[in-house]
Every structure is written in structure tokens, then in C-alpha cells.
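sorry for the late reply, my laptop died twice this morning and i had to redo everyting from scratch. anyway the thing you sent over, i finally got around to it. pasting the sequence first so we're on the same page, its 231 residues, then the predicted structure underneath. double check i copied it right bc i was rushing
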Amino acid sequence: MKTVIDLLRLFSACACGLLPLLAQAQVGIVRTVEGQVRVFSAKAECAPRYGLDVDEGDIVRTGDKAWALLTMMDGSKITVRPDTELRVDVYRFTEAGESAQNRAQLMLLRGAVRVTPGRIAKGRNAGFDVNMPDATMTLRGEDQDVTYIVPQVSTRGDALAGAYGKSYAGEAVMKTAGGSVTIKPGQVAFAETKVRKPPQVLTADPYFYHWHSYIDRRAAVIEEKLAADLR
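ok and here's the structure:
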């Protein structure tokens, strides 16, 4: 008998015209969505539903007030926040494989993601990187937030364009061409776009993190309801 997740995957693939189901290597699934979310890949453009496969090379794009929760093959969870474009460049994990081959490389083109890293970020594995046009965040802890504000885009509180990284649990490292900084729990680091200098730890959180916390609460409610429905 198929599991609930198997049935959800099959439904999603059929609804989007993406058969055969195993045409590409799956690295995760869409666990929860709300609002206008699209997935772009070599297969097709699709409006995702619960259980849709996520493959290497896929781009997840969210609209205003929309978000998606991805569950990856190593147990990582990624909340793709509103007005975000995230590309899954590399995602490799096998229990029996060489640790140097277990790695994740995401490209955050704009917007923000919250990542609860799974086994790829642990032990001797190659690690979990979120790349941005001006910086890279290497995730070493258990709960991190990564934001990239593109130039000419206004934000709540008029935050400067550039890369932002926040750690809720564990450490992360932000690297640019000018240097690097370790982000400890509760800290926020910032690297201004097109400025060649090391990232800096900010003395206060930018205002947009208040909006992030609202999405986190909303996502938690939806995820809890979905989990109850599947029991």
C-alpha cells in the first residue's frame, strides 16, 4: 500500500503534467504552501501542492504574502518566505556515501529563507551553504535565517540592500570577498551589496525580522494542522 506521502507526490505530479514521476533525482518535497507559489524546473512550471518533488536545479518563487515549506532528503526544513526566489543548485546526501560528497548549495536570488539544517550540516559532511550575489552563509547550527535584499527594492524599515544572516540556534559563518564573520545565537550579520569589506554584526535587528516572525507563526499553525490531518 502506498504511503500518504507517495500518494501526495503522485497527485501533484499528475496535476502538473510531470510524469514520469522519477524523471529527475528528487532531493526534497514541498511540505506546505500558502498563497501564490511557483516551482520552475527543466520539467515544467508548476503551482506546487503538498508532496510535490523538489529536484536539483529547481527554482521556488513566492509571491507577496506567500510562502512554502520544503522538507529535504537529509531532514532539513526550509521556509521560503514571501517575495523570494530560491534555486536548489546542489543537494547530495547518502548515508553510505563519502562525507565530502554530502553537501547542499542553495542560491538565494532575492528574499529570505529560514533553514533548520539536517544531517548535511553535521559531522564531517561538506556542509550547507546558502549563496547570494554578494555573500555566502555557511550553516553550522540548528536554526538560521538568510535574507538578500536586492538594490532598488524598498523594505519595511528601509533596510540597506545586501545580505543578512541571523542565527536562532547554533553558529553560522557569513563570507564575502572582503572577509568573514561568525554569527552566534541571537546575532545578525550584514554585508552591504557591492562593498568590498567584511560583514559586520549589527547592534539591533532590522525591522523586517518582525515580519519574518509573523510568517513563522503562520507556518507553524499550518504545519501543525497538516500533521494532524495526516495522522
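The chain is about 15% helix and 40% strand.
thats about all i looked at so far, will dig more tmrw
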